[in-house]
Amino acid sequence: xxxxxxxxxxxxxxxxxxxxxxxxxxxxxxxxxxxxxxxxxxxxxxxxxxxxxxxxxxxxxxxxxxxxxxxxxxxxxxxxxxxxxxxxxxxxxxxxxxxxxxxxxxxxxxxxxxxxxxxxxxxxxxx
Length: 127
Description:
The chain is mainly alpha-helical. The chain has one domain: Orthogonal Bundle (Non-ribosomal Peptide Synthetase Peptidyl Carrier Protein, Chain A). The chain is built from 3 helices and 4 strands. The strands form 2 sheets. A two-stranded antiparallel ribbon has the order 1-4. It has a two-stranded antiparallel ribbon with strand order 2-3. Helix 1 packs across helix 2 (70-97). The longest helix is centred in the N-terminal third of the chain and has 35 residues, at 3-37. The chain is rod-shaped.
């Protein structure tokens, strides 16, 4: 195994762990704050009811409610934005820790065969 395979495996494992932490942070910390500043709205409860639920006499639902749960979708979008920002910050910090590799100056190329031949002729003429 090369270093790249191990790096990929570690990245997948960390992504799962970070995803769980960020999801918990979003659902338990950020969404209540956003809901508070949005006037006490809980986005998870926001929906557009297409068909109301019909209940029987005993209180049991005979027909379930049919609704578009756009509030949960808003929560997912906010979660995506926060996860993207966290991953951006992690990659940015990682890139700062890497040392920049300076390229060594290229060694001057030796003379070509034609130039070597011409130098030999020049040296022979000097003698």
